[in-house]
Amino acid sequence: MTSLSDNLHLLTPEFALAVLAFLVFAIDLFLPEDRKGYLGWVSIAGLLALIVVSLVMLWGEEESLYDGLLAVDDFALFFKVFFMGMGVFIILTSMDFVEDRLEHRGEFYGLLLFSILGMNLMAQSRELLTAYIALELLSFSLYVLAAYAKDDAKSNESALKYIIVGAVSSAILLYGVSMVYGVLGVTKFEDIAAGLAVASEVSPALWVGVGLILVGLMFKISAVPFHMWAPDVYEGAPYPVTAYLAIGSKAAAFALVLRLAAEGFVPAADRWEQWQIILAVLAALTMLLGNLVALAQKNLKRLMAYSSIGHAGFILAGIAALSLDSDLASNGVMFYLVGYSITNLVVFAALISFFNMTGKETITDLGGLADHQPFLAAALAMGLFSLAGLPIFAGFTMKFYLFTAVANEGFLWLAGLAVFSSLISLYYYLQILRQVYIEPTPASDGGGDLLEDYPALTKRTSLTLLTVLGSGMAGIIWLGIYPKPLIDAIEAASRAVMS
Amino acid sequence: MMNDFDQVALLLLILVPLAGSLMMMFMPGDQSKESWYFAIFVAGISLILSLLVFFRYDYDAGGFQFIRTYEWLPGPLDINLALGIDGISAPLVLLNGVVLFGGVLISQTITHRIRDFFVLLLALSAGVFGTFAVRDLFFLFFFYELAVLPMYLLIGVWGSSTDFGTFLRTKEYGAMKLILFLVAGSILVWIGILALYVEASDNSAATFSLQGLAQLSESGQFDETFQTWVFPLFMVGFGVLAGLWPFHTWSPDGHVAAPTAVSMLHAGVLMKLGAYGIIRVGMFLLPEGAENWMPVLISLGTVNVLYGAVSAMSQNDLKYIIGYSSVSHMGYVLMGIATLDNVGVGGAVLQMVSHGLMTALMFLLVGSVYHRTHTRDITVLNGLASRMPVNTFFFAIAGLASLGLPGLSGFIAEFMVFTGAFRTYLPLAILAVIGAALTAVYILRLLARTFMGEADERWADLTDASPMEMSVGGAFVAIIIFIGVWPAPLMRVINVGVQTIPGV
Amino acid sequence: MQWAWLIPVFCFAAAPVIVIFGKFLPTKGAFLSILAIAGGFVVFWFVFGSWLDADAATKGCFTSANTGMLSCDYERSWFNAGVIGAVGSVSLHWGILIDPLTIAMLGLVTFVALMVQIYSMAYMMGDPRFGWYFAVHSLFAASMLTLVLADNFLLLYVAWELVGICSYLLIGFWHERPAAREAAKKAFIVTRIGDVGLLVGILLIWRDVGSFSMLDAFEAVRTGAMSEGVATASAILLFLGAMGKSAQVPFHVWLPDAMEGPTPVSALIHAATMVIAGVYLVARAFPLFEAYDAVPLLIVAIVGLTTALMAATIALVSTDLKRILAYSTISHLGLMMLSLGAFGYTAAIFHLMAHGFSKALLFLGAGSVLHSTEFQETGEMGGLRKVMPLTAIVFSIGALSLGGIPVLAGFWSKDEILVAVNDNRNAAFIILTLFTALLSALYMGRAMFLVFFGELKDQNSHVHDAPLAMAIPMALLGVLALGFGFITFNWPGSFNGLGDFVFFGHAEEFHFEVWLGAVSIVLAVAAFMFAYLAYAKRSISMEATRSRFSGVLKVIENKYYFDEVYQWVVDKVVLVFSRAVAFFDRAIVNDIIVNGPADITRKFGIALRLHVTGHVYTYTLAMALGTVGLGIFVWVRSV
Amino acid sequence: MVDLVWFQLLSAALFVIGLYGVMARRSAVLIVMSIELMLNAVNINLIAAASHMEGTGSFANFDGQLIAIFIITVAAAEVGLALAIILRMFRNRSTVNVDEIDLMKW
User: Fold this and answer.
1) CATH number of D4-100: 2.60.40.790, 1.10.600.10, 1.10.287.3510, 3.55.50.30?
2) In this predicted complex, what is the ipTM?
3) Which chain B residues are closer than 8 Å to C159 by Cβ?
4) Rounded CA separation B125/A371 (Å)
5) Which of B423, B429, B491 is nearest residue C80 as measured by Cβ atoms?
6) Quick check: is A498 in a domain?
7) Which of C611, C614, C630 sits opposite A232 (nearest CB)?
8) What residue numbers bound the domain in which A300 lies?
9) What was the pLDDT predicted at D58?
10) A45 part of a folded domain
11) If you measure CA to CA, which chain B residue comes closest to A419?
12) CB of C614 less than 8 A from some CB of D
C-alpha cells in the first residue's frame, strides 16, 4: 500500500494554481487601483507556465492518487490544459470589460483562477465527494462572479437565482450520493460500476440514487428540464462571466459527467443500456427546446444562453452514446467541447468588444456593424456559422464527428433530431448576421444613428480582444480543416477513461 | 512535369479558390478595384486548372482519374481526402471553371464591399469544385455545405428587393428561404450519410470512403430494405438543391433577389450539385433503392418540367421567368437521372452542363439589362433590340438553347433525356416533350416583350453590353453552339462516366 | 455524290461570317449569301449528274426495297450517347440520303432560294438590317437543304426546327411592328405544337426500331418487324408535325399572318422552304404511311382536302393581295397532301415543284407591286399592267399556272392529282377536289384581274416596274412556271417523265384521263372568264351574290373564326391556367407549405419561451417535476 | 438498532419538506433555510447508512460521516454566500421577495 503522499508531486499544477490564486488575492491588496490590470497579466503568465509544466510533467502519466480519489491521466491532462488555456483567453477577453465596468478587479482574476482549479479537479476526480467538492469550488466562484456587477440589479438577480437553483441541485446531487452510498457503501466511480454490474436486480434505492446524481449534474450542463436558470443567469451576469459560463463551466461539467459515466456506468453494460435511452430523451428535449426558444430571443446574451442549451443537448447525445465497444462517442464529446468552446469564445469576444464600445446587447443594436467594424463582423460571422455547423469551420467537423458517433451507437433518430435542431439554430444565427451585414445602422433615441451616440464604434478593437479573436478564428478554421492533431490527443485522453 | 501536375491537380483546383478567398480576407481596402483584379486572377487560374483537368482526362481509360488520397482522419471514422474525377464530374468541373470566371469578370458592377463579395464567391466555388472532385462522403458533404453557406450573405448583402405590387420579395426573405431550404435538404443528406456509415460499420467495414462504400454495396452488404429507406433521403435531400418539386420555391425567389454573378453560379452550377449528389451518392451506393424510387423521381421530374414551364408563362419579371425555367429544366435532369438508362443519364449530365451555361448566360444578360434600365419588368421593357443588339442576340441564343433548338446544346441534352425516358417511361416522356414545347411559349413571350417592338424613348441613351459582358457572353454562346453542333468530345467523357453507374 | 453535304454547308458557313464580319464587307456580306446558294445550286447539278451515272454498284448506292428508286446513303458519326458497343447506347449520325425525291427538292430549294436572294438584293436595299437579313436567309436555305438531305429522323428534326426558327426570325424581321412580332411568335409556337408530335413520333419509331435511320425504319415496316400499331401511331404523329409546318387545318393560322415578313421571305417560305417541308416529310416517310392498311393516308387525304377547300374559300373573299396568295398556298398544300393521301406520290411532288415555281413567281410579282405602290389591299390597285408590264406578265403566268390553265406547269400537276384522287379515292373526293380546282382558278383570276386590269388609279400613276435585280429572277421563274409541266411527259430517248424519276413502288407512265382533263380545263377557263367579267370588266356585279350569301360570307371572311377560337383558348384557358399555377405556387406552395411551418416553428418558439417565468421557484418546481418525470419514465419502461 | 429504512424515510421526508419550502416560500432568506433542510436530510441519510454498514466493527465504513462533515462545511459557506447576495439584492431593490425578482424572464 502506497503512502498517501507518495505521488504528491503529480498534483503540482493544482497546488501551484491554488498558490497563484492566493497570490493574486494577496497582491491585489497592495496594488494601487490603476495598476490592478497587471493582475490579469500575472494570471495569464501563471496559467501559461502551468500549461507548460503540466504538459512536461504529466505527459503520459497514468496514476491514481489518494487511494483512487484523484486520477492523473491523459484525460485529466487534456482537460487541464484545455481549461487553463480557456482561462487564458477568458482573462484576455475580460480585461477591457473589467477595467471599464467592474470594481474589485484583482479578486475577479483570483476567483477565475479558483474556478479553473475547481474545473481541473472535476476532470480528475474519480470519487463522488471529491467531485462534489470540486464542483462546488467552481460553482461558488461562479456565484460570486455572476454577482460581480454589484450595483446592477440584473447581476444580483442572476446570482441569486443561480445560487438558489444551484444549491437545490447540489442538495439533489448529494441526496443521490447518499442513496448510492447507502446501498453500495462506496463512492468511487469504479466501485459503483462494480456494484452495478454485480447486482442481478438493481434495488430501487440505487436507481433513485443514480438518477438523482444525474439530475444534479444535468443542472450543471443545463439540460432540459433543469435548464431554466441558464437564460436568466447568462443575461444578468457581466458579459465575460456569461462567456465563461458558456464555455468553461459547461465543459467542466461535461468532463465530470464523461468520467463518471465512462468509469462508473458504462462498464455495467446492462444497466448502461437502460440509462442510455433516458439520456437520449433528455438530450432530444434539450436540443429541441433550446433551439426553439432561442428563435424568440432579442437579447444577445439570452440568445446565446438558449443556444448553449441547444449545444448541451448535442453533447448530451454524445454522452448517451458512450459505449464499451468504441471510443467514438467520448472522442466526439471531447472534440465537440473543444470546438464549441473555441467557437463560443470567438462569438463572445466579438460581442464583448461591441459591448465595450456601446454598452448595447440586443440583436437589433448590431445593425450595420459590418460597415463600422468589418473585422468584428467577420469574426462574428465565422463564429456563428461554426455554431450552426457549417464548413469550413470547427462546427461542421465537430458536429459531424459527434453525430456519427451517436448514430453509430444506434441512435440514428437522435442524430437526425440533432441535425434538424441545427437547422433551427441556423435561423437565429442568421438573424444576427442579418443585422450585422444587411441591415443599416439603427437609429438612436436621439434621432441620429448609433454612430453619433457611440463614436467608439469606429475605434479599433483592443489588442487583447484582437488576440482572442485572431487566435480563435485560426482555431476555428484549423479544427474545421485539419482536426487530426487534436483528435489524436483526444483519442489518448479517451483511452484513459474508456478502457 | 504533367504527371506531377496530375498528382496535385484536383487539390490545386480546390485550394486555389479557397486560398484565394482566405488571402483576400486580409487584403486591405474593402472598396478597391484591386479585389476584383485579384479575383479575376484566381478565377482565371481555376479556369485553366479545370480546363487542364478536363482535357487531360483520358476517356479511353475511363474510371476515376487524378486519384490522390490524403490521410485526414484515419481510424474508426476512416475519413480521407480522397480526390478523383470521373466522366460525370469532369464536365461539371469545367462548367464551374467557366461560369466562375465569367461571373467574376462581369462583376465589375459590384461597387459595395467588393472584397467581401469575392471572398464569398470564391469560397462558394471552392465548395463546388470540391464537391465534384472528392471521393469521400464526408468531404463531399463538407464541400456541398461550403458551396451553400456563402449564398446567404451574397444574396442578403448584394442582392435587391423587389416590390411586385401584390407581394413583396425582399432580399432578406429570399436569402433566408434559400439557405434554410438548402440546409434543410442537407439535413436529409446528412442523416442518409450517417445511416450509410452505421450500416457499413455494422458490417464491420466502417468508412466514409465512396469507393469503400461502393464496394460494400456491390458485394450486397446493403440489403434492399435498407437501400429503399435511405435512398429517398438522398433523393429529396439533394433534390432540394436541384429544385425538385415541390421543394423548388427557394430557387425563383433566390434568383430574384440575387446579384448577377451569384445568380449565374447559383443556377449555373449550384443547382447541379444536387443532381450530381443524387447520382454520385444515391445511385452509386444504393442502386436497388434507386431502382425502387425511380418512378417517383421521374414523376416529380415531369411535374418539374411542366409546372416550371406553366408558371414561367405568366411571370412578368425577367428573373422569375428564368428562375421558373430553371425549375423546369432541372426537371429534365431529374427525369434523365430517373430513367436509369445510359442515354438518359448521359443526357441528364449533359443537360447539367448545357443548362448551366445557358442559364448563366441569361442571368448575365438580365443583369446587364437591369443594370442599365433598372427594371426587370417585361411589361415595361420594350424594344431593347435596337439599343442593345448584341445583348438581344445573346439572349436569343440562350433562350433558343433553352427551348431546345437543335444546333444548340440544350437540344442534344433534352433529346437524350427524351430518348432515355422513351425507353423506360413512355407516357411521362411524352409529357416532357410537351413541356419542351411550352418552353417556347414563355421564351418567345420574353423575347417579344423585352427585345422586340418599337424602342421606347426612355431607352434612347441605353448602351449595349460592355466589352467585358460581350466577351463573356460571346464565349458562352460559342460553347453553347459548339456543344450543340459537335457534342462528341463532351459525350465521350460523359459516356464513360455514366457507364460505371451501377444499375444503368 | 458524297459531296452533296457541301450544298447546305456553303450556306451554313455564310451565315456566321455575315453576322460577324458583315459590317466590313461590300453589300454588307449579301453577296456571300448569294454566292453560297449559287454554289449550292452548282453542286446540285453535279450531284444530279452523278446520280444519273450511278447504279446499285456505286459506293453507298442501292435500289430501295421500299420505293424502288436508286438511293444513295452516306453517313458519318456525329456522337454517341453511351459508350460505343455498350448495351443501350445510341449512335447518332450525320447522314445524307440521295434519291430522286431529294434531288427534286434540292433543285427546287436551291433555285428558288437563289432567285429570291437575288431579288432581295434590290428589294431589301436600304434596310438597316440588310446583312442580318441575308445571314438568316442563308441559314434558312441551309436548314431546308439539310432537311431534304437528311437520312435519319434525328437530323431531319434538327433541320426541321432550324427551319422553324429561321422563319421566326424572318417573319419577325421588322420586329418593331407589333403585328410582325406577334406573327413570328405565332408561327413558331403553332408549328412547335406540331413538332411535339413529330418528335414523339420519331422517338416512338426509335423505340421500336432502335435506330434513327429512316432506311432502318422503312425496312422494319416492310419486313413487318414494326407492328401495325406503332407504324400507324408514329405515322400519325409525324403527320402532326407535317400539319404544323405545312399549315394544314387546324394549324394553318400562322401562315396568313406570316405575311408580316418582307415579301421575298414569303416567297421563300411559300415556295421552297418551310411549308413544303411537311409535304416532303409525308413523302419521305411514305412507307410508314402506306404500311398495313394505310389508315394514316386516309387521314392525310381528309385533312388535305379540308384544308384545300377551306383555304380556297377564304382566298376567294380576301382583299389583301398577300393574304390571297397565302390562302392559295394553304389550299395548294392541302391538294398536295390530298394527293399523297390518294397514293399520288409523284403527283404530289410534281405539284409541289410546279406550285413552288409559280408561287415564288406570284410572290415576287406581288412584292414588286407592293414595293412600288406600297399598298397591300387589292382595292387600292387596279390597272397596274399599264405601269408595270413585266410584273403583270409574270404574275399572270403564275396565276394562270396555279389556276390550272393548260400547258402551264400547274395544269399538268393538278391534273396528275385529279387522276390520283380519281383512281384511289371515292367520288366525294373527286367532286370536292374539282370544286377546289374551280375555286382556285376563280381566286387566282380575281387577284390577277383586280390588280392588273381595270382602271389605273391616280395614286398609282407614278409606279414603276421592277428593277433589273428583281426582274431577272421573276423572268427565270416565269419561264419555269410556263414550261416546267413538260417534264411529266415521256420524252423518248432522253427522259421518261417525272413518273419514271420520282415514284413510289414502281415507275409510272404519264397518263391523262381525258374526261377529267376536260372537266378541269372547262372549269378553269370558265372561272377565269367569270373573273375577267366580274373584276376586270365589272360587267357582272357581285353585290347580289354577296348579299344573298352574306351569312356564309361573314363566316368565311372571318376565316371560320379559327383565330378567335385560338385567341380565346390562349387568353381564357392557357393564360388563366398559367396564372392559376403561378398563384398556386406563390400562395399555396410558398406562403402556406413553405412559410407555414417556418411561422409555426417561430410561433412555437415564442410561445415556448414563456415557460421561463423569471420566478426562481418555477425553476425548482421544474427540476422537481423533471426528476419525478424521469422516475416515471424509467418505471414505465421497466414494467 | 432501529432499522435503516426509518432513517431513510425521515431523511426523505425532510428532503421533500425542504424542497417544498424552496418552492413555496417567497422570501429568499427562507428559501435558503429550506435548502439547508434538504442538505441536512442528506446528512441524516449518510450517517445512518454509514452506521448500518456491514463490516467488522460498528464504524467499519465511516465514509458517510466524512461526507456529512464536508457537506456541513460547504453548506455553511453556501449560506454565507447566498446571504451576501441577498443583501446586495436588498440594497439595490429593497426587496427579497422572489415574486418581484423577475427582471429577466422568457
Assistant:
1) 1.10.287.3510
2) 0.89
3) 406
4) 25
5) B491
6) yes
7) C614
8) 268-499
9) 46
10) no
11) B187
12) yes
